Amino acid sequence: MIPKHARILVVDDEPDVLFALKLLLKTEVREVVTEKNPELLLSLLRQQHFDAVLLDMNYRSGQATGNEGFYWLGRILEHDPTTAVILITAYGDVRTAVRALKAGATDFLLKPWHNDQLLQTLTTALQPKTGSKSGSSPKKQVGPAAAIALLGESDAMQEVRAIIEKVAPTEANVLLLGENGTGKELVAKSLHEQSRRAARPYVAADVAALSEGLFESELFGHTKGAFTDAQASRVGRFEAATGGTLFLDEIGNIGLPQQAKLLTALQNRQVVPVGSNVPVPVDIRLLSATNAPLHALVARGTFRQDLMYRLNTVEITLPPLRERADDVQLLARHFAQVYAARNRQPEPEFSAAALRKLREHTWPGNVRELQHAVERAVILAVGPVLLPADFSFRSPESAPAFGAAATVAEQPLPLLEVEKNTIRQAIERHQGNLTKAAKELGLTRTALYRRLDKHDI
Ligand SMILES: Nc1ncnc2c1ncn2[C@@H]1O[C@H](COP(=O)(O)OP(=O)(O)OP(=O)(O)O)[C@@H](O)[C@H]1O
């Protein structure tokens, strides 16, 4: 049975699909939220924790590449790698489904689905994970603001944690600086969790993604009829965060007009929704982040100094991963454990050479890049030990030293051909139904997925 307390988000552009899934699931779980616009997915995830997301792969009629689905899958897992994402894809599109599993989806459903099968898939996806060491299994978020632990034993990370501990209980605005993927958003969540506002909302907004027009209505809200598409009034992020924390990400990318509006709101501690002339008082603690060199932007005149002083009562700079190589091993093992548990695989070991390779890489994408590299390795690895060949990086200094083993594996041995044909025929016999094909072949679904990947079926 699906856990009764579960919260499910369904994203699909077909209203009929949304209606049918809502009808089916609303008696099974605590909450079902449906959304037809995938652009709103991240803001929904930031406002509320969802245990699982049912995600359609294609959003534009006539398009069946699934690329949009992959994009959104990546964004969901970036936001919280422990979210169970079940992709909904066109019947028979096995290739896309396998690619989706490799990209981190928990499972997939083929349209049209059988309700029993859908409920079973959700039940499995939401089962507590097993196979990881006790006490350190990946934590599901327990509320909208629950954060994944900020790991790292390097001096730099210990210092960051010490500042967080000191600053979190205060009302100070905090500006988080650092390259992409260094953990700024994770720090923002930790600050909120350790603050006196922890029981109140944590609301995040990626302000760089907001066009100039949207900026005001998104942050300050709007009244019904304020502009053509405003069919109902809407509360802005400031108001939604009342009593809690507002996290503004990519703050360095907003233009001067938006900066002026933000500064006015912060100075007056009130916002005026678009289309209204009645100010709404707001009580928020402001956290913001950027990977831009904000001080240099101020010096250049593209970022207002007075706004920066409002934002950076305390500044925390997250060091790039290449400057804390000591943390690489610890993080790699952590992610291996998380992804092994998610894929219901035993936790792999790392060979000494693989660890050396990870340590020597320069990690331009920082912890996020490491996380994805380990996830890929865990899914695609053939044995219980991760080898250097399981990690391939684009940068020349860490080009994979595959050597002979890979060459042998790539040769189409007759035995491999037999296996490939057998699998292909089983799938054809069952018209793309992998569960049935796996059963006939005497394999688990996961074992079948691995073989599909191995043979590029
Ligand atoms: N110290 C850490 N311990 C555990 N996980 C981490 C750590 N730092 C980052 N991560 C993970 O790496 C991923 C990227 O982190 P996060 O989104 O916080 O980075 P960011 O600096 O906000 O990135 P961006 O600037 O691109 O928005 C997340 O999945 C996060 O959970």
The poorly predicted ranges are 129-147, 395-413
CATH superfamily of the largest domain: P-loop containing nucleotide triphosphate hydrolases
**CATH architecture of the largest domain, please?**
3-Layer(aba) Sandwich
CATH class category name of the largest domain: Alpha Beta
Question: Percent of residues in helical segments?
Answer: 40-55%
Name the overall outline.
globular
Could you say how many structural domains there are in total? 4
Describe the structure.
With 457 residues, the chain is an alpha/beta fold. It has 4 domains: 7-125, Response regulator (Rossmann fold, 3-Layer(aba) Sandwich), CATH 3.40.50.2300; 155-318, 3-Layer(aba) Sandwich (Rossmann fold), CATH 3.40.50; 322-410, Helicase, Ruva Protein, domain 3 (Orthogonal Bundle), CATH 1.10.8; 414-455, Arc Repressor Mutant, subunit A (Orthogonal Bundle), CATH 1.10.10.60. It is 43% helix and 14% strand. The chain has 19 helices and 16 strands. The strands form 5 sheets. It has a 5-stranded parallel beta sheet with strand order 2-1-3-4-5, sandwiched between helices. It has a 5-stranded parallel beta sheet with strand order 7-10-13-6-14. It has a two-stranded antiparallel sheet with strand order 8-9. Helix 1 (15-25) links the parallel strand 1 (7-11) and strand 2. Helix 13 (326-342) packs across helix 15. The protein is globular. The model is unreliable at 129-147 and 395-413 (pLDDT under 50). It binds adenosine-5'-triphosphate (ATP). GO terms for molecular function: ATP binding; sequence-specific DNA binding. The modification 4-aspartylphosphate is found at residue 56.
